[in-house]
Amino acid sequence: MPTSFAGGITIGSGAVAALGLAAGAFAYASRWPASQIFGRTLVAPRRPGELALTFDDGPNPACTPRLLDILARHEVRATFFLVGWFAQQESGLARSIAAAGHLVGNHSWSHPDLSIIAARRIRDELARTKDTLEQITGNPVRFFRPPHGARRPYVLRVARELGMTPVMWNAMTRDWSEHNPDRIAARLARKIGANQRRGYASNIVLHDGGHLALNTDRGLSIAAAENLLARYAHTHKFVTVDDWTC
Fold it and tell me: Which residues pair with 81 in a beta bridge?
């Protein structure tokens, strides 16, 4: 049966179905972490004994210092994808992350949905953050994670033009809305186990900040990270994502 839209446009049911499929395909390609349809991204290699702890949305003065202390006690290096605006405000903390030996990555300037914003703004979000982080840390920024995992071909192309590898993940839970750190860790452990059975390393996402404001309480996420560090201390190797590009 034909379908009518505002303005008097009528299309057949087959066209409606095609539009629905196209919309679904775009949603999958732009959001699903493992999708490579819009371009290659780094997820995780076939190294089932390796874990990369990655932290998004910092630096956050309310939680990042405690996280740095925990990582130091366990002698583990992690990857921090920093929001440029927060790094500019908390430049000393961003510098401390790099000085502790952790890998600093680009998480855009203001954490927008890069799959839908204008091309000019995409380039500004990525370039401004890269320049700011490099000025603060003194190190090149070679990795980029799109906020929400949202991307389109242009996003990945700009990242590569700026010398950055786009990074996704294969182990994440809703740690930002969970109320129990042990439950966060248990859910991530199940994902780690599933990845290992498939023969892959785990690229784990947790949050040490909140993208809406500084000083967001991410204490439960930090506690979950400490749980994982203890749980896998003697069975897995903790790495940073640059170890997977050698």
Answer: 56, 105
Binned at pLDDT 50, 70 and 90, residue 26 comes out as low
Q: What is the pLDDT of residue 25?
A: 54
226 and 70 in contact (C-beta within 8 Å)?
yes
Q: Are 104 and 80 in contact (CB under 8 A)?
A: yes
Task: Give the tens place of pLDDT for each residue, 82-139.
Answer: 999 999 999 999 999 999 999 999 999 999 999 999 999 999 999 999 999 999 999 9
- Could you say which of 56, 57, 175, 208 is catalytic? 56
Whether 56 sits among the annotated catalytic residues: the reply is yes
Asked if 113 is an active-site residue, the reply is no
List 102, 111, 207, 211, catalytic entry: 207
Amino acid at 205: V
pLDDT-derived band at 229 (thresholds 50, 70, 90) equals very high
Other CB atoms within 10 Å distance of the CB of residue 121: 14
Q: What is the pLDDT of residue 3?
A: 46
Quote the mean pLDDT of the chain.
91
Report the C-alpha gap between 45 and 38 in whole angstroms.
19
Structural domains of the chain in order of their starting residue, each with its CATH number: 50-244 (3.20.20.370)
Site of tokens 């405690």? 66
